[in-house]
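Q: A reviewer asked whether we had any structural model of the full assembly, not just the individual parts. We don't, so I'm hoping you can provide one. Inputs are below.
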Amino acid sequence: MFSVLAVILVLPLVSLVSFLLKNEIKKSAVACLGTSLAAGSGLILLFVPFFQQPHDNVLIPTNIPLVSFAFGVDALSRFFLVVIFGLSFLVGIYGFGYIKEHKKFVNSSPFFSLLVAAMAGVVISKDGLSFLIIWELMSIVSFFLVTAEHENKEVQNAGWIYLIATHLATAFLMMAFVMLSKSSGSLMFGEFVLQNNRTPFLNGLLFIFAVIGFGTKAGIFPFHVWLPHAHPAAPSYISALMSGVMIKTGIYGILRMLTFLGSPPLWWGETLVVIGVVSAVMGVLYALMQHDLKRLLAYHSVENIGIIVTGIGIGLIGVSLKNNMMAVLGFSGAILHVLNHAIFKGLLFLCAGNVMYIAHTLTIDILGGMIKKTPFTAMLFLIAAMSICGLPPFNGFISEWLVYTGLFNGILNSLGHTVLISIAGVLGIALAGGLAVACFTKVFGVVFLGESRSGLLQGSREPPGLLLSPMIILAVLCLFIGIFPWPFLNMVFGAMQIMAPGAGLVDSDHVMSPLVNVSTIFVVLIVLAGLMISIRSLVFKKKQIQTTVTWDCGYAHPTPRMQYTAASFAEPIGSFFQTILRPHVHRDKTTNVFFPEGAVFDEHVPDYAEYNFFEPLFKRIGSIIIFIQSKKKSTVQSYLTLIFITLIILFVAEVWFGI
Amino acid sequence: MEYNFLCNIFILIVMPPFFVGVINRVKSIIAGRTGPPILQLYHDIFKLIKKNAVYSRSTSCIFRIVPLTSLLIVLCAGMLLPIASPSPISFQGDVILFVYLFALARFLTITAALDTASSFEGMGASREATYGALSEITIFIVLMTLVIIVKSLSLNKMLTHGQNVFVADPSVILLFLAFFFIMLTENSRMPIDDPHTHLELTMIHEVMILDYSGPDLGIILYGASIKLFVFMAFTAMIIFPCSEGPVWAGTGILFLKVLAVSIMTGLVESFTARIKLIRIPQMLIASFVLTLFALLITLFDQRML
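A: Here is a predicted structure for the entire assembly that you could use as a starting point for your response.
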């Protein structure tokens, strides 16, 4: 425990040193490589048995009554620490190479180490106060990283949306923690768990606050609105870290909060499954309609968080129904997907960074043919894309398989509306999976395959090894977890037992045994594929191979512009889901029917949650505030009146509901 | 057990092109033609494999390795099924692997089509992605219904559930009809797609493989026949589960079952016209609703609602 805390405390020092340095290279080297080094040593410490004393919490008392800071590492924290340190280690190396090429990101680099420190701090906090303080620190530090290109108008806008979203979320968390500490008389997490004499109403309220507060950070639909703005604005290595790990602190928060709330009623799990399914489907639908690579990936985070939340939901249903099998499958699927998503989404955002490096744009429809110039980046993207679609033999399949089997168990072992919810869960994840295949074939096909649609790739080359090597490690992990998930599953089961204490080791063995078959099949499949491809190349050596132009209906001179674009590829799905997506179409109607000239067609899909939920909501709130402002004379007395009214409302809430 | 499994693999590797011949023969008889020999596809495949190949300059290695890999993937999916005898590699939860293996094959085929930089193949790829995603959820409903009926997550249990007789259960009959339609969709048969059309603008599967030639085309034709066989076997097994008797009896029964489904397919293809492309989503929704009814009937039947 002390060793982990020491590692986390080193990170702010790294950041400080980096702040003080003037030389650009040295500044970014200290920030990125220093963080990488610290994260790597933290990762090693977590696995060295000598440093693994599970229950030694560190307590830092203060003079203020009720306030003391507690830190500790249990199996759940340990799992998230592994994810945070692991990805930060690799992203740090990439970040150094990336900043070397893009000098404009140098000044924000010291915040990188602070962000890693804050994320690690969040998962080891064992009391409400330090949790909230570090949580806020994480939000603010990531705000500075998002606004690295602060001269850009869009980036400023993204930064604002992020800042507002994250603070509104924290407001809910503050309320939740105040309510928890009031009912248990302490701010310690341990006391929250032990003093579990809250009313079901209060527990339900806490659950809802946690889902809104942590769900905003995680990117649950419809609270995801900041994600598609913030991820494209941030530099790629930061997007990888934010999408890979930082949004998972929201998942950690939901899981941690559930441990406080005792035995869950059925509706919690069912709510989470519904939320998860909606997030998964909406996330992937919006992703399909995007024209910017990083925005598309950001929407896929919404989808994957949806899968994770569905897993948590089915696990909770299992806990409420006392069905250990369901609980084990749901929670371990969700927790493993946290790790898997960190790996493949990190890899995808780093690939996006490579695309930026190679072509200096992320607009999907003007790219193309990159596999011929940069085969490594293309192959890495392909592996990550297949993993994120949950396709065998990669890691995404294993966690989705766990969630699916959990849902199927839910269908078999429950009655009434729970069956229907489980069926909806299966259908939602299946639809999201099918659409994800469509989305990633689109991206991979349009960006990396075919011919280049513009002259962007002139003279471009593969990024340096510093950028590629961390990505290769991530890609290997994708395949490794897919065919050999046991070491990771053991870690997952440790964390899972905190969520479902009733589930013994017997149940996890039950989960393991089918996975043996899965990995045997995968190994055989890979070996056979390798064998067949080598036989093929031997056979083809004897044959005469000719090359020619692509068959285009006898058209002799096809140009790259005649290729299918991403927009046209997604069109059938877009028009099928028209009523949900409501695309804005702009068409130039002046074209002559008989002698067509140049025409304009423009389509984009505005985010329903952003424009039809939050915008009217904020407008309403804004108009109320303006109304209040116009009624009072902006004097001290009127402000005091407002404070007084607020106090009365809080007092009534306290007396009436006992909150 | 090993012997039975080898027998399954043997059937899976050898038999499929025969049933494509059966479908074509049925179609030609109804059209009043003599038609190609039943074993024509074997001949075609061997001939194509012996040929040289021509590739487009736009393609990359993806285009070259996809036919073989997707053939292997489809074979692997077929091995999970209890074809002539229960499959030894079947396990709890293999239904998900079964569907996802086909998704993997679809992913690879679409990617290879986009690799050619042709707008026609892009169209095919886009349609395949859309209809694939929509028919996948229908497959999942079929599987959920079967899971509820047999109370197990393994394909072996699902398709060998003891009864050797015609299951006159309304939900099972609905499932059979719906899955028959999915089989036509997934394998790009009429009325969704015409395997013999020559108009690139309206095709789905055939247009995606326009640029393949020689051995690769042979492998693709072979893989498509295996996929058709796996789907036809699955369709037949919904209504006539796999028997648990000796393997030769299983093989014989399987042969008759798949023959019946191929004749049905041939008849359907002879008497229906290809529907308009924009109507295909409506057909898919129709089959989705059909399976949903089957699921609800089963739920009420099992007193789960």
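A: Points you may want to mention in the reply: Chain A has four domains: 1-262, 275-534, 563-604, 610-657. The mean pLDDT of chain A is 87.
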